[in-house]
Amino acid sequence: MAAMLVIVGLLSSSFWPALSKEAKPAEDPEIEQRMKALTEQLRCLVCQNETLADSRADLAEGLRQEIREQMKAGKSDQEIVAFLTQRYGDFVLYKPPVKSTTYLLWFGPFVLLFAGTGVLYRYLKKRAEEILRQV
Asked: What's the pTM value of the predicted model, to 2 decimals?
């Protein structure tokens, strides 16, 4: 009987995450739709690779509420993004601006691709020369 109570307790406790709080939608559906579109462009500051719209972290909920309040106050999306980047830096943006501090982020993959292609070309050329010498 005790084992049965433990099993029932464990099973019932596994449903608590499903009952966690949901984000409270705004009274105005237009603001809610605008907030959803904006938060899909912003990164959650405490989650790994998760948008602000998808995150269930307490900080994300607070930021969504802050965004709703700023939208109700009549601020534009650009003003809200500027406020968040001033407060949290470019990390909050999923698409950071191209500037001197983000050049490596934007152009690093292309530099590595060209460098890798050059190394591969030199390796294959040297290998072809060795094969021709052996023949």
From this structure: 0.61
Q: What is the CA radius of gyration of the chain?
A: 26
Q: What is the DSSP string of 41-96?
A: TBB-SSSSS-BTTT--SHHHHHHHHHHHHHHHTT--HHHHHHHHHHHH-GGGBSS-
Quick check: helix, strand or coil at residue 120?
A: helix
Residues paired with residue 42 on neighbouring β-strands, in sequence order: 93
Q: For the chain, first and last CA: distance in Å?
A: 82
Tokens of 74: 């009549």
User: What residues form DSSP beta bridges with 10?
Assistant: none
In tens, the pLDDT along 7-66 reads: 666 666 655 555 445 555 557 888 889 999 999 999 998 887 899 999 899 999 999 999
> What tokens does 81 get?
């993004």
